[in-house]
Amino acid sequence: MTPRFPRTEALIPDEALTRLIENGRTSEERDGFDPFPVVKLFTPDAGATWLITEAYPEGSDVRMFGLCDLGMGYPEIGYLMLSEIEDVRGKLGLPVERDLHFKAEHRLSTYVKIARHAGRIVA
Fold first, then answer.
1. Rounded CA gap, 94 and 111, in Å?
2. What's the pTM value of the predicted model, to 2 decimals?
3. 18 domain-assigned
4. Both ends of the chain: CA-CA distance in Å?
5. Ranges under pLDDT 70 in the chain
6. Residue 35 contacts residue 108 (beta carbons within 8 Å)
7. How many structural domains does the chain have?
8. What is the pLDDT of residue 9?
9. How many Cα atoms within 13 Å fall on the side-chain side of residue 21?
């Protein structure tokens, strides 16, 4: 059985969550909104990566939007729940981490084009 390592801090800090929620509001108000990703999440012991641009609080959980790559060669944009990401563990039982050094260079649409061409998120 793979050990399950606990999370020691919030996956998405308050400042980043606030920016994601602001992007979510803007997206609802403005057609064609194409934000820069705010956070990059990844599995340190598997091939999954997420570039998150927006968040929508839903009760005790948060629905997020972004580019998702589960490491199978088919990155796609879509929605995911923060609670589900927080529960993900890789082969060694390590939790999803936030890339502390990630700074978006492109808007989401550009990352999508690059990922579809490469078959994976390239950030």
1. 26
2. 0.92
3. yes
4. 33
5. 1-3, 5-7
6. yes
7. 1
8. 82
9. 13
